[in-house]
C-alpha cells in the first residue's frame, strides 16, 4: 500500500513539474473509459446472451454425450467435459462449472484438479474473438478460431496428463 501511495505522489509531482493539469487528464481518461465501454457493450451483451442460452438449453448435455466416446479415447474424464465446453465461451461460466465440480467431487479430487489447471491454462476463445475482434472491426478471423480450438484441446490434454500422469 505504501508503494502505491508513493507512486501516486511521484506521478503528481512529475505531472506538476511538466505543467500537466492532472485533474483534466483524469477526466479525459474517464471519458475515454466510458467510450470504450460504449463500444464493447453490444459485443459483450451478445456473448452473455448466447452463453446463457447455451447453458439453459439442453445443448450442453447434448455435446457432453456427443463428446463422451472421444474423451474416453483420450483418457479425459467425462466429468470435466462441461469445463471443456464452457471455458471457450465464458470465464465466469467456467468458474461456475469449476465450483460445481469441486462441490460434487471434492476439491482434492482428480476432476477438480484437472478443472483447476484448465481454468488457468485455457482461454475464453469465443468471448475473446467476439469482443476484441469485434471492437476493431475484424470480420474475417481466418484461421484464428481453428488454431485456438486446437490449442484448447491440447491444453486440456496437458491438464489431464499433468494431474493424472500419462497412461
UniProtKB/TrEMBL annotation:
Record's keyword annotation contains Transmembrane: yes
Keyword flag Membrane: yes
Alphabetical UniProt keywords: Membrane, Transmembrane, Transmembrane helix
Nucleoside transporter/FeoB GTPase Gate domain boundaries: 37-138
Pfam families reported for this sequence: Gate
Signal peptide: none
Ranges that cross the membrane: 33-54, 114-135, 141-164
GO cellular component: plasma membrane
Protein name, UniProt field: Spore maturation protein B
Native source species: Caloramator fervidus
Amino acid at each position: 500500500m505504501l508503494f502505491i501511495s508513493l507512486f501516486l505522489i511521484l506521478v503528481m509531482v512529475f505531472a506538476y513539474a511538466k505543467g500537466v493539469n492532472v485533474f483534466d487528464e483524469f477526466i479525459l481518461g474517464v471519458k475515454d473509459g466510458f467510450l470504450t465501454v460504449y463500444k464493447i457493450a453490444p459485443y459483450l451483451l451478445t456473448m452473455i446472451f448466447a452463453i446463457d442460452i447455451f447453458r439453459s438449453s439442453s445443448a450442453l448435455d447434448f455435446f457432453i454425450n456427443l463428446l463422451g466416446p472421444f474423451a474416453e479415447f483420450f483418457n479425459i474424464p467425462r466429468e470435466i467435459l462441461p469445463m471443456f465446453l464452457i471455458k471457450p465461451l465464458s470465464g465466469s461460466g467456467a468458474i461456475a462449472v469449476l465450483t460445481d465440480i469441486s462441490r460434487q467431487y471434492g476439491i482434492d479430487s482428480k476432476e477438480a484438479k484437472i478443472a483447476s489447471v484448465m481454468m488457468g491454462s485455457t482461454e475464453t476463445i469465443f468471448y475473446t474473438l467476439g469482443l476484441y475482434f469485434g471492437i476493431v472491426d475484424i470480420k474475417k478471423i481466418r484461421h484464428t478460431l481453428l488454431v485456438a480450438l486446437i490449442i484448447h484441446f491440447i491444453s486440456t490434454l496437458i491438464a489431464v496428463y499433468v494431474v493424472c500422469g500419462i497412461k
